[in-house]
Amino acid sequence: MEEALAEYLRHLALEKNASGHTVKAYREDLTQALDFFRTRSDGAMSPAKHLTTRLLRAYLAWLHDQNYARTTVARRLAAMRSWCRFLCRQGILATNPSAGLRGPRLDKKLPNFVQREDMLRLLDAPPQDRPLGLRDRALLETLYSAGLRVSELTQLNLPDVDLAEGVAVVRGKGRRERLALLGPPAVTAIGDWLPARATLLGPRAALLSALFLNKNGTRLSARSVGRLLEKYLAQAGLDPRISPHTLRHSFATHLLDAGADIRSVQELLGHRSIGTTQIYTHVTTQRLRDSYQKAHPRA
Is the predicted pLDDT of residue 291 greater than 80, yes or no? Predict the structure, then answer.
């Protein structure tokens, strides 16, 4: 089974263009499953062709017995289903043993978002009299203006951004490219950051491609962006649980609140499925319902 798993992970990385983070997550989830299968066969590892529905059901039962969260069980079942489909396409399995398995029922959680007035306070928090403050303002404006994932933000390079047109080429999940729109405040903030970037880095600035760098000339990481956001949330007196992804949720919610077409929002977010985008319509509907309950005398 180890060889079959290694082949699947190579398929994810090379053919599906999955990110390193995705491949790592699949490796960890499926390696745990293989360790369980090994205990069921007295320490010996059976070939992948011996995977059965009964064995997979036993694995799911074990996950429940270990008190894993339902979201974790669902993710590991999804990884197993994907691997089994791959094994079927490779001719290793004649039938898919995961086809009839049902995952745990998950609660539908509406995404959190930042109110518009709070968003303005956050975007105004970075100082404008220091190079790193200009960088942070440009960073936050870009996250919110374009609705980017934090990984998409940190991967931006100078040639990806066209300030004259107000667009950026973004590489999303599966390395799919799309055009993201930059509003005038984001264009202005990036335009202010670029000279400050040159001042901060000196002659090295022209040799470095990343748009957002630290003072040492290293590309900012997702964790660094999270720490910067925490600092400005504290300065603005906002909820410290707000994450970079919350700004993406806010981007979509504010667009739909203002009457944007859901298909346009789907394209701007880079979602493959409209179903993924529709969660934001539930947010706006819930807000309307809350307003109705508070304001209507017969509610």
Answer: no
